[in-house]
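Please fill in the sequence for the structure shown.

STRUCTURE ENCODING:
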């Protein structure tokens, strides 16, 4: 990482970890952030998981499965100090990016993963025509019939 301080905008980054250490890295980082009072630089740490339904011997069982094994997502402001803390956490092999400069995820990548929702406020009245588009490209036209 270059000597200059990066911009102070929080961004999402991907941390590469030893496989199986994702949750340990998350808890260790959360403890370190709290102990060093760096909550103003770290905003969210996620180990992306999805529910997986398994049917075995006629019994239905729900398991959580890591979406990206060996990776942890972190929303943070990158400075020399925060970069050092993350990079030197046990189980972390580094940031995804070139050399010592972590590369933040793009807005499109963040939206595609669905772990950060952008809230949109739309002003409409009862009986206004509203067009709702689904991510699966299903189109649905409805009239609003509820209060805001």
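FILLED IN BY: designer on duty
SEQUENCE:
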């Amino acid at each position: 990482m270059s000597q200059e301080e990066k911009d102070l905008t929080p961004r999402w980054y991907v941390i590469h970890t030893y496989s199986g250490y994702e949750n340990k890295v998350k808890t260790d980082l959360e403890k370190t952030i709290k102990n060093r009072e760096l909550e103003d630089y770290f905003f969210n740490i996620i180990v992306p998981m999805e529910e997986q339904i398994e049917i075995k011997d006629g019994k239905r069982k729900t398991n959580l499965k890591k979406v990206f094994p060996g990776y942890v997502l972190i929303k943070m402001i990158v400075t020399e100090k925060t970069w050092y803390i993350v990079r030197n956490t046990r189980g972390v092999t580094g940031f995804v990016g070139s050399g010592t400069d972590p590369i933040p995820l793009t807005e499109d990548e963040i939206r595609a993963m669905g772990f950060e929702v952008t809230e949109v406020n739309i002003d409409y009245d009862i009986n206004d025509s509203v067009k709702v588009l689904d991510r699966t490209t299903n189109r649905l036209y409805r009239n609003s019939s509820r209060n805001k």
